[in-house]
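Our consortium's second objective concerns turning raw sequence data into structural hypotheses that experimental partners can test. To show how far this objective has progressed, the report includes one record in full. It was chosen at random from the queue rather than selected for favorable results. The single chain below, 295 residues long, was entered without modification.
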Amino acid sequence: PSPLHSVPEMRLMEFFTGLWFTKACLTRYMAEFREVFSKAKHIAIITGAGVSAESGLPTFRAASGHWRKWKTQDLATAQAFSRNPSRVWEFYHYWRELALKATPSEAHRAIAECEARLSKQGRSVVVITQNVDELHRRAGSKHVLEVHGSLFRTRCLSCGDVDASHHSPICPALEGKGDPDPNCRDAAIPVKNLPRCDEGGCDGLLRPHVIWFGETLDSHILTKVEKELDACDLCLLVGTASVVFPAAMFAPQVASRGVPVAEFNIRPRANMYHFQGPCATTLPVALERHESEVI
C-alpha cells in the first residue's frame, strides 16, 4: 500500500470530469438521489473531518488547523514522535480529550439510523472513515472501517501490542496538558512518564495507534475497504476534501466503474453529484426513510 500523503485536488477532478452532474438545483438532485438511494443494496459511506467538525472537533487540515504553532503534518509523523514524544503526546491528549467530551453530530446519527433501518431490509451500509475519534461507533454505527486508526488505541514500540484505552487522561503526567494556545510552552514530560505498555510487564513506550504521514494503511483494513468498494452500488462522500492519499482515491475508484457517487460537503466541487452545505443538515434529509421502504 502507498504511504499516507496529501494530493492536489485538481488531480482528483480529472477522475470525476464527465462522470457526474454539474451543480444545479439542490431540490431536483435530492429527488434524483433519493430514487437512487431507494434502490441501493450496498451503500459505502466515506467520511472525513467535516462530519466531526459539526461535533465541535477541530479540522486540523483547515487553514486555521493548528495546534499551538504546528500543523498536523508537523506532528503526525514517526520522525516527530522520535524527536519529541512529549510534544506529540500532548497534541494527541488534547485531541483525545476533545473527542471524549464531544457528542455525535446529526450526520453521525443519520448514518447510524440508516444502517440500522436498512439492515432490517436486507440492505447494508458500511462506514469507511478517515476520522480517528470513534464518534461513528458512539452514534451506533456497527459496520465501521477506521482507515486511519483510532485516538483510543495505542501501540507499544517495544512489543507491538495494540490495546484500547478510553482513560481520561491516558496517563497522569498528561493531565491538564495539551493547551493549544500558541504561546503555551511544551510540557517536556520525561519519556518514562508518558503512556507505557502494561502487557506482561513490558513497560515500553506507547504511541497513538493512528496512521501517520509517510506510513502505510493497515493491509487488513485496506483489503476490507477494497472489498466494500468493489461491492457497493452507491457511494457517499461526507465531510471530506479527499486530499489525503490513498483514501482520496476511494470515490474515484467507485465512480470509474459507473457507480453513483454523491458528495455532502461545505465546499463545492465541479462535476460531482454534490449537496453543498453542512452535512448535519443535508445528510439526514438524504438518508431518511424513503416512501418505498416497507420496514
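The partners drew two points from this record. The longest helix spans residues 85-101. The CA atoms of residues 162 and 221 lie 15 Å apart. Both points have been shared with the crystallography group to help prioritize constructs.
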